[in-house]
TrEMBL record, chain A:
GO biological process: 'de novo' pyrimidine nucleobase biosynthetic process; 'de novo' UMP biosynthetic process; amino acid metabolic process
UniProtKB keywords: Pyrimidine biosynthesis, Transferase
Protein name: Aspartate carbamoyltransferase
InterPro entries xrefs: Asp/Orn_carbamoyltranf_P-bd, Asp/Orn_carbamoylTrfase, Asp/Orn_carbamoylTrfase_sf, Asp_carbamoyltransf, Asp_carbamoyltransf_Asp/Orn-bd
Function: Catalyzes the condensation of carbamoyl phosphate and aspartate to form carbamoyl aspartate and inorganic phosphate, the committed step in the de novo pyrimidine nucleotide biosynthesis pathway.
EC category: transferase
Entries under Pfam families matching the protein: OTCace (PF00185), OTCace_N (PF02729)
GO MF: amino acid binding; aspartate carbamoyltransferase activity
Reactions that this protein is recorded to catalyse: carbamoyl phosphate + L-aspartate = N-carbamoyl-L-aspartate + phosphate + H(+)
Location of the Aspartate/ornithine carbamoyltransferase Asp/Orn-binding domain: 169-315
The EC number(s) this enzyme carries: 2.1.3.2
From TrEMBL, chain B:
Keyword check for Glycosyltransferase: yes
Protein name: Pyrimidine operon attenuation protein/uracil phosphoribosyltransferase
Pfam families named among the record's database cross-references: Pribosyltran
GO terms of molecular function: glycosyltransferase activity
Alphabetized UniProt keyword annotations: Glycosyltransferase, Transferase
Phosphoribosyltransferase domain segment(s): 5-132
Amino acid sequence: MRNPQLNKHGELQHLLTLDGLPRDVITAILDTAAPFTEVAEREVKKLPLLRGKSIFNLFFENSTRTRTTFEIAAKRLSADVVNLNVSTSSTAKGESLLDTVDNLCAMQADMFVVRHAASGAPVLIAQHLQATARDHIHVVNAGDGRHAHPTQGLLDMYTIRHYKRDFSNLVVAIVGDVLHSRVARSQIAALTTLGVPEVRVIGPRTLLPTEVEKLGVRVFHDMSEGLRDVDVVMMLRLQNERMNGALLPTPQEYYKIWGLTQEKLALARPDAIVMHPGPMNRGVEIDSAVADGAQAVILPQVTFGIAVRMAVMSMLAGQ
Amino acid sequence: MQLPDAETLCRQLAAQMRPHVTPDTVLVGIHTGGVWLAERLQQELGLSHPPGAIDVSFYRDDYGARGLHPQPQRTEIPFAVEGAPVIIVDDVLYTGRTTRAALNELFDFGRPARVELAVLVDRGDRELPIAARYCALTLPEPLPASQNLQLEREEDGTLTLRLIDA
C-alpha cells in the first residue's frame, strides 16, 4: 500500500505523521526550512509563494502557540488564513467533521491545518479528500489525540540539528508523560528515522506506554540514571487536563522526583541542550532556573517552528 | 559550439563596470553562478562591501506549475539595501524571469537608489523587458531551449562555462 502522505511520485501530499515518513523526506523538509529562518530578519517579512491560496486552521482543540505559529507561517507565505473557532462553529450545532470539510472545500480551500482531540481525525480527512478525487487539497496534522504532532517533531529535529549538527552520535532523552504525548511519539519516530543511536525515555511506569521499548527506545524509571551523559533533554508537558487522578499523586510530588532541576541536569553532558514543546508548567516538570538557563533552547524552538511550518506548507501547496 | 573562456569574460566584465562603480556600490549575486561571479567582481573592482547572495526559489513564477525548487539556498544580504546603488550579478541572462524574481526579492529588503544588471553571457530569447547594462558576451544566435549554459567553479576557484543538454 502506498504511504497515504506521499503522492505517486513520492512527494509529500499530506503531513499526517512522522512514523513511516522516509528519511530523505524528513531531511528535505529540514533543508528547506533553513532558508526560511532568514525571512524574519527582512524589512518585508513576506514571501509570495502561497499568494492566492486559502488555508483553513481547523482547531477542534485549544492551542495558542501551534495555531499562532501556523498562522504566522501561512501569512509570511502570503496565503489567506482563516481561523475556525470551533466552539462557535457548526460542529457545536451538530455538523459532522467531514461535512465541515466539504463546506470549506466548497469555499475553495487549498489546505487544512487540523488539530483534533481524536487520534486519526486528520487521516480521516485526507482519506475523504482522496476518495473524492480532491488531490489538490492538502492536510497538515497539527496534533491529533495521542497519535502524532509531526510539525512539532520536525521543529524539534531542526533545533537538534541546529545545535548539534549531526544526529549520528547523539544520546537523546525524552522525559515525562510519554503515555499521553503525541509529541513524544513524533519525536521518537523522527529520531530513530534520522539515525540517533540512543533514544531514552524517562518517566514513571504509570506514564509510559506498555511495551514502549518496541519503538526502539531505552526505558529508564530513574532520572539520575536516565540523564547521565545525554546530549539532548526533551522535556514533555505534564498533561494535567488529561489526568484522571489515579496516575500520579500530586504535581509537587511529581516535581520532586521527575522535575528537571539544575542538579539533575548536571548529570547530562555539559553542552547538553534542554528542550520543551510548551506550554511549560514551571515547578512541575521543569524548574524555572533550567527553563531560563543557558542550556535551554525553548524559545529558539518556537522561532524555528515558524520556518519549519513554512517549509511544510510550501512543499505541500506546490504539489 | 566553442565556449569562450570564463576567466577572460570575467576580466572583460570587470573592465566594463570599473568606470561606473563607486566604493559603496554593492553587488548581489544570484545563486549559484552569480554568487561566484559577484565574489570575483568585488575583489577585482575593490568594492568595500562583501557581495550579497539571492536564491530566487521563493519568488519564481513557475511555483504554481512546478512546485518548490528542491534545496533552496539561503538569501543573505549583509548590507542595507535602502538607498544603496545595487548591481545584480548573474552568470547567464536568458528569459529574464530569474532577474524579475531577484528584483522582487531585493525590494523586500528596502528601496535601493538604483539597480543595474551585470551578466557574463546573454544567450538571447528574452521573455520579459529586461536588459543587462554590463555584459561580457552576447551570443550571435540564441541557444536552443534544450541546452543549459551554466557557470562552474573548479576546486582551485577557476571559473568555466559548460553547455549541458537538458
